[in-house]
Amino acid sequence: MSAARPLTTLRAVALTAALPLLLTACGYGSEAEKDDAPKANVAADAKKLSASEVRIGYFPNLTHATALVGLQEGLIAKELGATAIKPQAFNAGPSEIEALNGGSLDIGFIGPSPSINAYVKSKGSNLRIISGSASGGVKLVVNPAKIKTLDDLKGKNIATPQKGNTQDVAFLNWISEKGWKVDPESGKGDVSVVRTDNKVTPDAFKSGSIDGAWVPEPTASKLVSDGGTVLLDETALWPDKKFVITNIIVSQKFLKEHADVVEAVLTGTVKTNEWINANPDKAKASANAKLAAEGGKPLDAKIIDPAWPSILITDDPLAATLKTQAEWAVEAKLIEQPDLNGIYDLKLLNKVLKAAGKPEVSDAGLGAK
User: Fold this and answer.
1) Contact criterion met (CB below 8 Å) for 234 and 144
2) How does pLDDT run across 219-231, given as a tens digit for each residue?
3) For the CA atoms of 146, 152, 156, 159, what is the dihedral angle to 10 degrees?
4) DSSP character string of 192-219
């Protein structure tokens, strides 16, 4: 099989890791929620950049740990000097893309599918992917009384967050690799793919209206805490056990007019990622504190503790895996063959990485010229 279809050889993989409760689907959902935290005080002698503020969007998700920790610890703000951060928390991708397109957002943490969709719909005019942020954190959790092996999924009701989102595309591809048939529009077929908001999925699981779910952080661990079993970890299905779940995008207009601000943000995210990986326990607590500030209470230890190590925090956008995800969406007939040339602009990231003594990362041939 081709490298674009890494799921083929792992039909019998059964894993027992656990994930946390997803506060939002990767890339899909409802309206933005503005972060009303006061702007950090800026020293009078702080460095001046070309913009007085930068508006940064993210989801209150563990898979957006770079944003959570970078904001909570002030690691991004420190690099911006006199440029204030105006953070906005979003429930999912469409509203974040809408804000980016409408000019009310400059930089965003977001999943690969909404990035692809937005880039294609705008004919390459509205965004660039400028960095990676996270890999992994997606699992298939099932009711063990109904499903004991992967073959038992046939005829069952399995939830994904939304039609065409990152997890939905991966699950449809996995189903196809099994030789089963599902209509991508309705979700009906040999497996019933039930598109369900992640906030609703735990209740649907407990009520028995779904038999399992292919979901990201932190919904899966919540399902495990409610009696589910992890039957499959998507990480195991990819070469090198890595695939993009969160990347960083920027408005092309903002990138053109304020490259110095974008570079400062990337310097902050690179330093944040380094700190997260060097201090996993402190970083976990920091992310949970930011989640508590967003949602009113932190995640329970039985959810966040197994979830945290299942996510790889990385500067690398893992561009080749985004390319594969786009191919899967085409094969599932969810999108037409996309032209992704130019979706990445990693020049500033690689400049920052080089200055930090770190290796440069690849755009898989999809970089802006």
Assistant:
1) no
2) 899 999 999 999 9
3) 90
4) EEEE--TTTHHHHHHHTS-SEEEEETTH
